[in-house]
Design a protein that fits this description.
The complex is a heterodimer. The radius of gyration of chain A is 22 Å and the shape is globular. In chain A, helix 4 crosses helix 6 and helix 7 packs across helix 8. Chain A is an all-alpha fold. Helix content of chain A is 65%, strand content 0%. Chain B folds into two domains: 35 residues, no CATH class; 113 residues, no CATH class. Helix content of chain B is 38%, strand content 23%. Chain B is built from five helices and five strands; from the N terminus they run H-E-E-E-H-H-H-H-E-E. In chain B, a hairpin with a 2-residue loop joins strand 4 and strand 5. In chain B, helix 3 packs across helix 4. The longest helix of chain B has 17 residues. The chains are: A mainly alpha, B alpha+beta. At the A-B interface, helix 6, helix 7, helix 8, helix 10 and helix 11 of A face helix 1, strand 1, strand 2, strand 3 and helix 2 of B.
Chain lengths: 332, 164
C-alpha cells in the first residue's frame, strides 16, 4: 500500500512539479512561423488544402485577393460590436489595405519584431472581422482559440516591453519570447477549463449521463456536412450512431474522459511532460470529434501541437542526450 | 510552485464575469474572442438541423453557393425561433406552429439572399425558389429516426439592379 502511494506521489510530482518552459531561439522562431501561418489562414483558408500540399503555397499567396467582408450591418451585435460599428471593414478601401498590413505585420513578426508592435494590426483586424461576422446572428467559435492566443501573445508582448522599460525582470527570468509563449499556453488552457465548467454548469452536473444522446448530434453534424458541399463522403458509417445509441455506456466512457481532461487542463501548464500529456490527450479528443462529427478544430489541434506537445523539443532533447560519435558513455 | 495568474484571470473572466455581464443579452457568455463555450454542454434527447432545396426540390450546396455553413444557417433559424417563442407561450422551439416557423424560415432565407456574393447571385437566381427544410432527429423505439418538413420558401425575383 505504501509502495503504491509512494509511486503515485512520484508520478504526481513528475507531472505537476512546476518548471519554467525554456525555449531555444529556434523554437521561438518556429512558434512564430506557426502562429503567423495560422493567423494568415483566417484571411486565405489555406489550411483547407492540407490534403493537397502542392496547392498550399498558391493558397497562401493568392487567396487573400479573393477574401471579401460583405457584412454591411451588425443586426445582433456581439462583443465589442455592442459599442463600435465594425461595418467599415466591408468597405474595400479599408479592408484591402488592412489585409495587406496584416500580411506585412505577420512577416515582421516572423522576422522577430516584438509582438507588441507586429501583432497589433493582425490582432485588431482578426478580432474585429470575427466580431462583425459573429454579429450577424450566428456565433462561430472556429477561430476563437486562435484569436485568444493572438491576444495573449500581444498582451504578453506589451507587458514585457513595459517591464523592460521599467527595468523589471519578467517572471521566472523568462525572455520576452518565453513569456509570450507562457501567456499563449495559459490562454489556450483557460478555454478548455471554462468549457468544462460550462458543461458541468449547464447540464447541472449530468453531462456524463446526457452524453448518451451524443450520437444524435453525430447524425446531425454529418448530415450538415453533406449539405455544405453535397459531398457523399460526409455520410459514412451510418451504423455507428445507431450502435452507440444502443450502447450508451460507450459514449459515456469515451466522451466522459474529455471532461476531466478539460477541467484539469491547467495542469498542462506545469511542465513539458504534463504539457505533452494534456496536449496529446486533447488532440486525441478533438480528433475523435472530427472523425465522428465532422468538426475540424484544426486551430486547436495545431496550437496544442505547437505550444504543448512540441515534438521538436523532445527530439532535440533526445539528440542532446546522445553521446558524440567516438565518445564512450561515462561508467557509473 | 508558481501560479498562473493570467490563466486564472481568463477563467474568471470567461467563466463568471462575462456570463454575468451579458446575462440579459441574446447570447450570454459570448464576447468575442472570449466565450464560455456553451456548445455541447448539454445533450437533449432530440436535436435538429436545417438545409435548403431549390424550386425543383433538389438540395443546394449551402457552403458552395452561399459561402455559409449549414451550422450558421441553423443558428440564424434557431435565433429567429427563439425570438418568436414568446408569441406561443409554453411551447418549445420545435413545437412552434407552422406560421411562426414559416416566419423564421422566411427571415433565414432572406439572410442567405442578402449575404450572397455578387459572383454567386446569378447562379442563385437560376434556382427559382429557395426552400428551408427542418429535420428533427430523435431516438424512438430503439432506432434513430428523422422527420423532414419544409418550413418555408421564398421565390427568387431579380432585384432591380440585376435586371437589364
Amino acid at each position: 500500500m505504501n509502495a503504491a502511494l509512494s509511486a503515485f506521489q512520484r508520478l504526481w510530482q513528475f507531472f505537476t512539479h512546476c518548471e519554467p518552459f525554456r525555449h531555444a531561439r529556434w523554437e521561438l522562431s518556429l512558434l512564430r512561423v506557426i502562429v503567423a501561418l495560422l493567423v494568415w489562414d483566417t484571411q486565405t483558408g489555406w489550411v483547407a488544402h492540407l490534403d493537397q500540399p502542392l496547392q498550399i503555397p498558391r493558397a497562401i499567396l493568392e487567396n487573400s485577393q479573393k477574401a471579401d467582408i460583405r457584412y454591411e450591418s451588425q443586426p445582433h451585435p456581439n462583443g465589442l460590436a455592442t459599442w463600435f460599428d465594425f461595418t467599415f471593414l466591408a468597405n474595400d478601401h479599408i479592408e484591402k489595405p488592412l489585409r495587406t498590413a496584416t500580411a506585412v505585420s505577420l512577416a515582421l513578426y516572423v522576422l522577430g519584431v516584438p509582438a507588441a508592435l507586429s501583432l497589433l494590426v493582425p490582432m485588431f483586424f482578426g478580432i474585429a472581422a470575427s466580431t462583425l461576422a459573429n454579429s450577424q446572428g450566428a456565433i462561430g467559435h472556429t477561430s476563437q482559440a486562435l484569436h485568444l492566443t493572438l491576444l495573449s501573445l500581444w498582451l504578453a508582448g506589451v507587458w514585457s516591453l513595459w517591464c523592460r522599460w521599467k527595468k523589471k525582470p519578467l517572471p521566472q527570468n523568462y525572455s520576452a519570447g518565453e513569456f509570450e509563449a507562457s501567456w499563449a499556453r495559459q490562454g489556450i488552457m483557460a478555454g478548455y477549463v471554462v468549457s468544462a465548467i460550462s458543461k458541468l454548469f449547464f447540464s447541472e452536473g449530468s453531462w456524463l449521463t446526457s452524453a448518451r444522446y451524443l450520437p444524435l448530434h453525430i447524425v446531425k453534424n454529418r448530415d450538415m456536412e453533406f449539405y455544405d458541399k453535397l459531398s457523399p463522403n460526409a455520410v459514412t458509417d451510418e451504423w455507428l450512431p445507431q450502435l452507440m445509441m444502443e450502447h450508451p455506456l460507450w459514449c459515456i466512457v469515451i466522451f466522459g474522459l474529455a471532461l476531466p481532461l478539460e477541467l484539469f487542463a491547467f495542469l498542462g501548464l506545469c511542465n513539458r511532460r504534463a504539457a505533452a500529456l494534456f496536449g496529446i490527450g486533447l488532440i486525441g479528443f478533438h480528433e475523435t470529434v472530427t472523425q465522428l462529427m465532422s468538426l475540424s478544430f484544426i486551430f486547436n489541434k495545431i496550437l496544442l501541437l505547437a505550444f504543448f506537445v512540441a515534438p521538436w523539443w523532445w527530439i532535440a532533447q533526445w539528440f542532446q542526450k546522445q553521446p558524440a560519435p567516438g565518445v564512450k558513455p561515462a561508467s557509473r | 510552485m508558481f501560479s498562473f495568474h493570467y490563466h486564472w484571470f481568463l477563467v474568471l473572466l470567461m467563466g463568471i464575469a462575462i456570463p454575468l455581464l451579458t446575462a440579459k443579452t441574446e447570447k450570454p457568455g459570448e464576447f468575442y474572442p472570449f466565450s464560455n463555450f456553451p456548445m455541447y454542454s448539454t445533450f437533449e434527447p432530440e436535436t435538429y438541423y436545417v438545409y435548403v432545396t431549390d424550386g425543383a426540390g433538389k438540395p443546394v450546396a449551402i457552403g458552395t453557393l452561399f459561402s455559409k455553413s449549414p451550422s450558421d444557417v441553423k443558428k440564424i433559424y434557431d435565433r429567429k425561433l427563439s425570438a418568436l417563442k414568446p408569441r406561443e407561450k409554453g411551447k418549445r422551439k420545435l413545437e412552434l406552429s407552422p406560421p411562426l416557423k414559416a416566419e423564421a424560415a422566411d427571415e433565414t432565407l432572406q439572410w442567405l439572399e442578402d449575404n450572397i456574393s455578387n459572383a454567386q447571385r446569378s447562379e442563385m437566381m437560376t434556382l427559382g425558389k429557395l426552400r428551408l427544410h427542418e429535420v428533427v432527429i430523435v431516438y424512438r423505439d430503439g432506432a434513430i429516426s428523422k422527420s423532414d418538413v419544409i418550413v418555408g420558401e421564398r421565390a427568387l425575383a431579380p432585384s432591380p439592379a440585376t435586371q437589364p
